[in-house]
Structures are given as C-alpha cells and as structure tokens.
C-alpha cells in the first residue's frame, strides 16, 4: 500500500453536474498531482499543487480545479460534467514536484462515470 | 509537443519467460524517466526511475535501460510470473519549462501459466 487514499471509489454523475473527488496524501508530502486516465490510455496530467498553490497544469479547461489543504488532503473539482469526463482519476503525492526525481505514490483512483 | 510512445501495445508470454518492453520519447531536455506497473483498476506503482545521466536501473526482476542519445528506454522482465500481468507505463519528465510529466499509453502484458 502506498499510504495514499482516495474517495469515493466509484461515482456516477449526470452530464452537467459538478463533482468533488478527494485524496489523502502521505504525511509530510508537500506535493499532490492529479491525473485523468481514460480506459485503455495512459494517465494524463491535470495539475499539481505544491504547498497549497497550483504549480503546473496540463491541457485541461478551467472547469477542472483543485485545492490542497495543510493536513495533506486535497480535492479535485470538476464542473459542468461532460460524457468524456468518464475516467479513472488518480492522485499522487510526493515530496517534490511531479517532474522531479522524487518518488510519486499513487492512490487507487476514483472511477467516475458520467451518463 | 512532448510525446512518449510505447511498444508493443500488448504482449502475451508464458510464465518463466523473459520479455522486453520499449519506450521512445521526444521530451528534451528531460529530467528523468520512470517505469510504472499498473494492475487493472489500481494506481500505478513505481518500478524504476532514472535521471538523464543514468544508463540502467534494476529492481528485482525488472531492469530498465536508457539511451539518452537515441531517446529510447527499455524495461526487461526476467523469469516472468503470473503476477507480472499488468500494464507497464513509461513516463518522461522535462527539465525546466512546464515541469509536466508525459505518460505513455502503456504496454499490456499477460503472463500465461
């Protein structure tokens, strides 16, 4: 086990709704990254938070937003859900930025289905 | 645009056999290259991480090699086991710039008894 947890495990939402996914990082890790993984694809970087501020963002629209809290927890919020948002959402915590040589520890993911 | 291409897309081998997975990338300059193992429906687990100055890194039966000149990496699995059945993902991170890692689509490995 990596010590990174995510909730909920599965979620079904309707197009146009909003969703909040949660991640609890390893204690002491100051960086959390979020990824979207469509079926049969590799993960795609959404953004990362370093010491509670966004630091790096992939090619995702502003309706994808996040928060990182001092207690090593974080949230991914997605507004105005679209069918293509159906995917496995992964968070990863580390002691430094995602592109650095710090080890990244992934959570088990949240499977989001948009109908 | 930074790209990471993995081959083959899928691979079936018999238990006990060796196999090699390939990763070609265009990310330049790059900071590090990682290989992950991802079981179905689970988060990826790190196997190896190599900086641009390293040529090889081992983790048990897993050995990764890196040729920064040709922008190629390989992951060699020795004496495969049924539990090796998973997707293997190559990830390349840039040095400087956006600091955003680029993931390959993965190679799906199935090990049969």
Description:
The complex is a heterodimer of chains A (115) and B (113). With 115 residues, chain A is mainly beta. In chain A, 0% of the residues lie in helices and 50% in strands. Chain A is globular and about 35 Å long. In chain B, 0% of the residues lie in helices and 58% in strands. Chain B contains no helices and eleven strands. Chain B is globular. Chain B starts with a strand and ends with a strand. The relative contact order of chain B is 0.34. Chains A and B meet through strand 6, strand 9 and strand 10 of A and strand 4, strand 5, strand 9 and strand 10 of B.
Mean pLDDT of chain B: 93
The number of helical runs of chain A is: 0
Low-confidence stretches of chain A: none
Proportion of residues in β-strands of chain B:
over 45%
Distance between the termini of chain B: 41 Å
Number of strands of chain B: 11
The total count of strands of chain A amounts to 11
Oligomer: heterodimer
The percent range for strand residues of chain A is over 45%
Which stretches of chain B are low in confidence, meaning pLDDT under 50 for 5 or more residues running? none
- Overall 3D shape of chain A: globular
H/E topology pattern of chain A:
EEEEEEEEEEE
Which chains share the greatest interface? Answer: A-B, 29 and 25 residues
Distance between the termini of chain A: 32 Å
Helix % of chain B is under 10%
Q: How much helix, percentage-wise, in residues of chain A?
A: under 10%
What letter string, H or E per element, gives the SSE order of chain B? EEEEEEEEEEE
Question: How much is the radius of gyration of chain A in Å?
Answer: 13 Å
Class by helix and strand content of chain A? mainly beta
Radius of gyration of chain B: 14 Å
């Amino acid at each position: 086990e990596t010590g990174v947890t995510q909730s909920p495990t599965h979620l079904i939402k309707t197009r146009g709704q909003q969703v909040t996914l949660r991640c609890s990082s390893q204690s002491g890790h100051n960086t959390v990254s979020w990824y979207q993984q469509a079926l049969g694809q590799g993960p795609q970087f959404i953004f990362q938070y370093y010491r509670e501020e966004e630091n790096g963002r992939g090619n995702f629209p502003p309706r994808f937003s996040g928060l990182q809290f001092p207690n090593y927890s974080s949230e991914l919020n997605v507004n105005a859900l679209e069918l293509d948002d159906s995917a496995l959402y992964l968070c990863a915590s580390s002691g430094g930025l995602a592109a650095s040589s710090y080890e990244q520890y992934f959570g088990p993911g949240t499977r989001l289905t948009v109908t | 645009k930074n790209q990471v291409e993995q081959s083959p897309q899928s691979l079936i081998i018999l238990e006990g056999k060796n196999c090699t997975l390939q990763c070609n990338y265009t990310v330049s300059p790059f900071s590090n290259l990682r290989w992950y193992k991802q079981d179905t429906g689970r988060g990826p687990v790190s196997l190896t991480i190599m900086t641009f100055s390293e040529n090889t890194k081992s983790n048990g039966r897993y050995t990764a090699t890196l040729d920064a000149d040709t922008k190629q990496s390989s992951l060699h699995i020795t004496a495969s086991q049924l539990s090796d059945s998973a997707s293997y993902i190559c990830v390349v991170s840039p040095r400087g710039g956006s600091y955003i890692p680029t993931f390959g689509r993965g190679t799906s490995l199935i090990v049969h008894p």
